[in-house]
Design goal:
Largest sheet: none
Order of helices and strands: HHHH
Distance between the termini: 22 Å
Helix content: over 70%
Number of domains: 1
Structural class: mainly alpha
Number of helices: 4
Shape: elongated
Number of strands: 0
């Protein structure tokens, strides 16, 4: 029962992370004159997506480590697992960076032009991590 609950939390965190990732991409695709009429709404969405991604990645790490240790031990040999961990660490670094810098960017007039690229990279990393997890865990 506890294992199922932890696994459900893990899958929910994955869903929330995917929603945040896609939401940021949709916002990046929709920038333009129509975005200017509701900057408060758009900025609130960006903040919610950013915080959702942060909560999701923390939950994924905690529940993922518990699930792995419970079923497989502390490490799994193989390229797919090692690559998954490396990509998850990179995704975590991107999410932490975006969350740390967002308040500063808000005070200075907006994020730098490379931020949408980080959102696209994060989405690609998330998809790659899920694929590698499917390979690593069968």
């Amino acid at each position: 029962m506890v294992f199922a609950l932890i696994k459900a939390l893990h899958l929910l965190a994955l869903a929330f992370g995917a929603a945040a990732s896609l939401g940021n991409i949709y916002l990046a695709l929709s920038t333009g004159p129509h975005d200017l009429a509701a900057p408060g709404f758009t900025n609130m969405l960006r903040k919610l997506y950013r915080l959702t991604a942060l909560g999701a990645i923390v939950t994924l790490w905690v529940t993922g480590l518990i699930l792995m240790a419970w079923r497989h031990g502390i490490w799994i040999d193989g390229f797919a697992f090692n690559a998954k961990i490396a990509l998850a660490a990179l995704l975590t670094a991107i999410i932490l960076f975006l969350n740390a810098m967002a308040p500063r960017w808000a005070r200075s007039g907006g994020p730098p032009s490379y931020v949408p690229v980080l959102h696209w990279l994060g989405a690609a990393l998330l998809l790659s991590i899920v694929l590698l997890a499917a390979i690593a865990f069968g």
